[in-house]
TrEMBL record:
Pfam families: Patatin (PF01734). GO terms for biological process: lipid catabolic process. Residues 9-169 form the PNPLA domain. This is Patatin-like phospholipase family protein. The active site is at residues 42, 156. A motif (DGA/G) lies at residues 156-158. Keywords: Hydrolase, Lipid degradation, Lipid metabolism. The keyword Hydrolase applies. GO terms for molecular function: hydrolase activity. InterPro entries: Acyl_Trfase/lysoPLipase, NTE, PNPLA_dom. A motif (GXSXG) lies at residues 40-44. The keyword Chloroplast does not apply.
Length: 335
């Protein structure tokens, strides 16, 4: 009997929660696994692309030093663009890190997923400029402006493919790991063996954009800019692991307590949009996982941080590592 060693990795969409992907990769490498292919949507594409290019450490060094105010400045809030956030300042730094890297020259096969808004279908980036592919994939609808590329208007890959397992199937591997970001868990995973890890995911409810600059914009133009932050409450979630009917190892986060849902009337407009997308992606993910079931499914809870809490990278990286460690501990040996 041998432990699987070659991993195909599908990294899901989820805004700032997607920093958990960095922890997933770190834990896999620490345990000696070889990542042989990566596919990603949105933040999964950003993290996965940087990793395949050998530049993830440079990116982590940069984001680890960002304060909440630094993030606000980078977000480039606008009330006139198709998205509240331009994101070009962030992408400028990413382009500096990546240079002119093209996908087909990466040492690890990589696919970034975007959505063609005109054609209404998913686009797989497996060739071309890596930074352009990442820019297209991270365009959260209504939040980050879509990306115009070769006559297409491209948006977040998570719209149609929140956990892109299918693109990894062309590369031989021992085990396929899918990472769902922003999950509330679900009944399809079967009965869970509860394993409490108290205090793992305590949230900070201070709005990310609660600062003098944004307050001045809100005062001048109304509450639209302030809606980006959201106003969800804090809660504590305990990860657990189980095996589903297909034998896949599933790391789940348990059900949310009834009072964790917050007050619906306190959601801002962008928060309503973000939550609506979360719900749609959760339902779509269930169908996709049924069609392309990974061997290991790691669920990162939606309430770990908010979509735009990009100053909480260290917190999400730790969560990603802990959830991955639990999944790998339960990974069965190969015959």
């Amino acid at each position: 009997m041998a432990r699987p060693s070659r991993v195909a990795l599908a990294l899901g969409s989820g805004g700032a929660r997607g920093y958990a992907h960095i922890g997933v990769i770190a834990e896999l490498e620490a345990r000696g696994f070889e990542i042989v292919t990566v596919a990603g949507s949105s933040m999964g594409a950003l993290v996965g692309g940087l990793y395949c290019a050998g530049k993830l450490d440079d990116y982590v060094d940069w984001i680890s030093g960002l304060s909440q105010l630094d993030v606000v400045r980078l977000l480039d809030v606008s009330l006139t663009k198709p998205g509240v956030i331009g994101a070009e300042r962030i992408l400028t730094r990413v382009r500096e890190i990546l240079g002119d890297t093209v996908i087909e020259d990466l040492p690890i096969p990589f696919t970034a997923i975007a959505t063609d808004l005109f054609a209404g279908r998913a686009v797989w980036f497996q060739r071309g400029n890596l930074a352009d592919a990442l820019r297209a994939s991270i365009a959260i609808p209504g939040v980050i402006s879509p990306h115009e590329h070769k006559g297409r208007l491209l948006a977040d890959g998570g719209i149609l493919d929140p956990v892109p397992v299918a693109p990894t199937s062309g590369v031989p591997s021992d085990v396929t790991i899918g990472v769902i970001i922003g999950s509330d868990g679900g009944p399809e995973t079967g009965a869970s063996r509860q394993s409490k890890t108290k205090g793992l995911l305590r949230r900070n409810v201070a709005p990310i954009l609660d600062n003098e600059f944004v307050r001045s914009v809100r005062d001048r133009f109304g509450s639209e800019a302030g809606d980006v932050a959201g106003t969800e409450g804090a809660d504590e979630i305990a990860p657990a692991a189980t095996s589903d009917e297909e034998g896949a190892v599933v790391v789940d986060t348990g059900a949310l307590s009834p009072d964790a849902a917050g007050e619906p009337g306190r959601m801002g407009r962008v928060e309503v949009l973000s939550r609506s997308l979360d719900i749609m992606q959760e339902a779509l993910t269930r169908y996709q996982v049924a069609g392309y079931p990974p061997d290991v499914l790691i669920r990162v809870p939606r309430r770990a941080v908010r979509t735009l809490d990009f100053h909480k990278a260290a917190e999400m990286i730790d969560i990603g590592r802990e959830l991955t460690a639990k999944a790998l501990d339960d990974l069965p040996e190969m015959p």
